[in-house]
Amino acid sequence: MASEEQRAQVPDKLTGTGLTIGIVRARWNGEIVRRLAGGVERGLAGLKVTRTVEVEVPGCFEIPLAAQYLAGSGQVDAVVCIGAVIRGETTHYELVAEGCGRGVQDVQLATGVPVLFGVVTVENEAQALARSEGAGGHNVGEEAATGAVEMARLAQRWAPYRQRS
User: Fold this and answer.
1) 16-155 has which fold?
2) Given the residues 92, 112, 134, 135, the one annotated as active site
């Protein structure tokens, strides 16, 4: 069950009935990603999404390419990307977090398919756990799932008017 704050953010009458949502999940930081995936499942089920396509990739840096494959396939209405980048002792964190975020943004702008960023980028494991709570708690995956349905509906509404290049 979503928290009161999360329920307040869901537009009235939003439904995912008939949509197919792609899910790209990283294997790295697997415990956190499993928790985020639980949030995605809850979010989609709460909005009556019954069709999903899942792709698993090694880490967050690989998420954008998988999202591009799904978005370009014509098989999904939106894509949810989940993963966890936890700061370590090197600059690797910045490279992965920035590359993943920028890549996800580039995919949705290039394809016109909504791609939601459900990747937690945090300083430590405690922060990651706090952003991937179970039912009724804060879960970035659940928020991204809701956003995917909302943006898929927006895309359906406005796609006929989208300028083609």
Assistant:
1) Rossmann fold (3.40.50)
2) 92
